[in-house]
Design goal:
The complex is a heterodimer of chains A (about 325) and B (about 250).
Chain A (H helix, E strand, L loop, with lengths): L3 E5 L1 E2 L2 E2 L1 H17 L3 E7 L17 E6 L8 H15 L3 E5 L2 H14 L3 E5 L1 E5 L2 E8 L4 E7 L4 E5 L14 E5 L10 E8 L12 E5 L9 H11 L3 E5 L1 H5 L20 E5 L5 H7 L4 E6 L12 E4 L2 H18 L1
Parallel strand pairs in A: 1-4, 1-6, 4-5, 5-12, 6-11, 7-11, 14-15, 14-16, 16-17, 17-18
Antiparallel strand pairs in A: 2-3, 8-9, 9-10
Chain B lengths: L2 E4 L2 E3 L21 E3 L1 H17 L4 E7 L4 H10 L3 E6 L6 H13 L5 E5 L10 H9 L3 E5 L1 E5 L2 E8 L2 E8 L2 E5 L11 H9 L2 E5 L7 E7 L8 E5 L4 H11 L4
Parallel strand pairs in B: 1-4, 1-6, 4-5, 5-12, 6-11, 7-11
Antiparallel strand pairs in B: 2-3, 8-9, 9-10
Classes of the chains: A alpha/beta (about 325), B alpha/beta (about 250).
The structure holds flavin-adenine dinucleotide and adenosine monophosphate.
């Protein structure tokens, strides 16, 4: 019998879908281990705003650690608070999200607790009391099934892969003030620039619209922004490496082997040939749409739906059609 | 300033991956290997730092098979000064790897350890931050460029919809990602020089793996896709399929 903890990220009190997915996984693991699903949220005074909603996502107990110094993510502060919470709670398993923040935090916590970490997993289970996980390796060219011989068993889950649980139950929510010693922190943020406020990270969005060299130049990105806006919310822009290396788009948007790995429910590859290193970053998308004027482009071999044609004609028509239907909904 | 860069030998990004007969690993026959791409960015960053400072020694460190010598020689040919190969069996337990590397790194007084953000074989994105936690050093991940200013490293990184500048006290661990500085190709002169640079090979301390691989599989083949049509005329049908068949819009 062991309880399972989900670490849930929040930004300004808002909990994203990845956090609810982590709680759903924790509740499934808790059922397998015969314990309860707990959630931990950290932040400043605004952090608790989304806590009530986690009950419905599967958490029976929600703890919110609030401290002024935890308003922004700080690796050292967060790692020590989360590790202490896990130690005190005696959890049998812990679920993180493989988001930018989670990838930074989870390995530190695992090392502080001296237990291994299965990163970026796409399946989890319990087999005879042992937590098991499946994770893509070799950029998704193979899958490894792992048995984790340690307690707590720690995993980080790939965003968009798991379904949040649908519990009617309301979890109990309590707040606490963690011990935070900022004088011990050795990392300081000296500058933060947001290029475009409120833009979703390409690795976390449910739908991704990516452009490649076929876009011809950065001045044409309005086309892809038009498609993004027609679709509405939960959409991010992505890019091929050719585009990023040419300086047309920022590095943070690159999808692929040396960029982000994405697993959205819908991926548009526009003017992207589909090189193996690009596929490495997006092959686990649920539905892939390719728009390319070359019928032999390798992207069509992984695309569920393709249109062969000039993107400069297809994309505006596509945005228009989607906008029409959304307006009618 | 002396810098140690941890690099890993991994299958080339073009490599075709097949599961081997045991069902718990890959068939390595015919696979070409190379330095993991992010590690090449880390080596490039160290070389630029050394060039800017006009001093310092760059040591490459790897844990793996003897064949990883080839990867180290490549880094030496790019311009690193010396290399250490800890021989032993690498598993999917990144903490076990981190312990092997941390033990070696602790025996040095280098103020800066560089890693790639992610190795292109196990894709764990964890060894750098784990080494940092094990050695009690601060760690910044996702760094695209950095400069040394006195006893600090000033790190630049891209974050969701923007960028960040962070300052970290040395000694520190930085995990490098792709940035504006393309890794250099080794020139013939570098390749010749690399042959004479020191490369120490010694057995790694035994690493106890606590994540067991119980199965390895190839991804299910994606069902053959469908060309919906040509040009803008195919858009209505595409949108219908996305809504009604794929339930994606
Ligand atoms: C170690 C390594 C790591 C790499 N990492 C990555 C990575 O992370 N991500 C990545 O993307 N790549 C990566 N690459 C690069 C990769 O090999 C390809 O070079 C790159 O993906 C090509 O980008 P692209 O598809 O935009 O360009 P191209 O291959 O040039 O394709 C452009 C496509 O646009 C189509 N097109 C042109 N005009 C039109 C039009 N008017 N309408 C419709 N279609 C049109 C063309 O038919 C073509 O298929 C990596 C390579 C290496 C060696
Ligand atoms: N066996 C190894 N030898 C040397 N460095 C390694 C090894 N494994 C991982 N690393 C380093 O840790 C980084 C992250 O690896 P990983 O956590 O396995 O994705 C790599 O980019 C390397 O810098």
């Amino acid at each position: 019998m062991a309880n399972v903890l989900a670490f849930v990220e929040q930004r300004d009190g808002v909990i994203g879908s990845a956090g609810r997915e982590a709680v759903g996984v924790a509740s499934a693991l808790a059922a397998g281990l015969g314990g309860q699903a707990h959630a931990l949220i950290l932040g400043n005074a605004s952090a608790a705003a989304g806590a009530d909603g986690l009950g419905a996502a599967g958490a029976e107990v929600v703890a919110v650690g609030q401290h002024d110094a935890l308003g922004d993510y700080n690796p050292e502060g967060y790692a020590s608070v989360v590790a202490a919470h896990i130690r005190d709670g005696g959890f049998g398993a812990v679920v993180f999200t493989a988001t930018t923040l989670g990838k930074d935090l989870a390995p530190r916590v695992a090392a502080l607790l001296d237990v291994p970490l299965a990163s970026d997993v796409t399946e989890v289970g319990v087999d005879g009391g042992v937590v098991t996980a499946v994770r893509p390796v070799y950029s998704g060219k193979a899958f490894a099934t792992l048995a984790i011989d340690a307690s707590p068993a720690i995993v980080s889950i790939r965003p968009n892969v798991f379904q949040p649980a649908q519990n009617a139950a309301a979890g109990t929510v309590s707040t606490f003030t963690p011990d935070v010693d900022t004088s011990a922190w050795r990392i300081r943020v000296v500058d933060r620039k947001s290029a475009a406020d409120g833009q979703l990270d390409v690795a976390e969005a449910g739908i991704v619209v990516s452009g490649g060299r076929g876009m011809k130049g950065p001045e044409h990105w309005g086309l892809l922004e038009g498609l993004r806006d027609a679709i509405g919310s939960d959409v991010a822009l992505g890019a091929s490496r050719a585009v990023v290396d040419a300086g047309w788009r920022p590095h943070g948007e690159q999808v692929g082997q040396t960029g982000k790995t994405v697993a959205p429910k819908l991926y548009f590859a526009v003017g992207i040939s589909g090189a193996i290193q690009h596929l490495a970053g997006m092959r686990t998308a649920k539905t892939i749409v390719a728009i390319n004027r070359d019928a032999d482009a390798p992207i069509f071999s992984v695309a569920d739906y393709g249109i062969v044609g000039d993107l400069f004609e297809v994309v505006p028509a596509l945005s228009e059609r989607i906008a029409e239907l959304k307006a009618a909904d | 300033m002396n810098v140690i860069v941890c690099v890993k030998r991994v299958p080339d990004t073009e490599a075709r991956i097949r599961v081997d007969g045991s069902g718990t690993g890959i068939d390595t026959a015919g696979i070409k290997y190379d330095m993991s791409p992010y590690d090449a960015f880390a080596v490039e960053a160290a070389l630029r730092q050394k060039e800017a400072a006009g001093e310092g020694e760059i040591t490459l460190l790897t844990f793996g098979e003897s064949a990883a010598q080839e990867t180290l020689r490549k880094g030496l040919a790019m311009g690193a000064d010396k290399a250490v190969l800890l021989t032993g069996e690498v598993t999917l337990d990144g903490l076990a790897t981190a312990k092997v590397l941390a033990a070696e790194l602790e025996s040095t007084d280098a103020p800066l350890f560089l890693f790639g953000v992610k190795a292109a074989d196990d894709d764990q994105s964890q060894v750098g931050p784990m080494v940092a936690a094990l050695t009690g050093r601060p760690c910044v991940t996702g760094v695209s460029t950095y400069e040394i200013q006195g006893d600090k490293a000033v790190c630049h990184r891209d974050v969701e919809g923007g960028s960040e500048v962070l300052e970290v006290d040395l000694p520190a661990v930085l995990c490098m990602t792709k940035g504006p500085n393309e890794p250099r190709l080794a020139a013939l002169k570098g390749i010749m020089a690399a042959k004479k640079k020191p490369l120490e090979e010694k057995p790694a301390a035994a690493a106890e793996a606590r994540m067991r691989v119980t199965g390895f599989s190839e991804p299910p083949a994606r069902a053959a896709g469908r060309i919906v049509g040509e040009g803008a005329g195919a858009v209505d049908e595409l949108v219908r399929l996305l809504r009604e068949e794929a339930n994606a819009l």
